[in-house]
Amino acid sequence: MPQKEVTPTPVAPTPTSAPQEEATPTPQPTPQRARPSPTPRFIRFKAFVSPLRADLKASPSPDAETVAQVKGGQALDVVGRSDPPTWLLVVYPPDSDGRVWIPVDQVRIYSDLTLLPVAGEAAAVLITATPTEAAAPTAREVIATVPASALAARITADVLNVRAGPGTNYAIIGKLRSGDQVLITGRDEAGTWLQVIYDTATRASGWVFAQYAEISGNVTEVPVATTTAQPAATQPRPTGFTGKLAILTSSGGELYLVNADGSNLRRVTVGALDPDLSPDGGRIAYARWPGGPDPEGVYVRDLTNDNEWRQWGTHLPRTPDWSPDGRALVFAFQKGGREGYEEFTKCYGLFCFSFMLGPDPNWRLGYVDTWTGEYRDVPCLAYAANPSWAPDGQRMVYHDDRGFEITTLAGPSQAINQEVRYKNPVWSPAGGLIAFEYAYQDHTEIYVMSEDGSGVRRLTSSDPLAKKPVNNTSPTWSPDGQWIAFLTDRNGSWEVYVMRPDGSQQQPLFPGGLPGVTIQHRTVGERLLSWSR
Question: What's this model's pTM, rounded to 2 decimal places?
Answer without folding.
Answer: 0.61
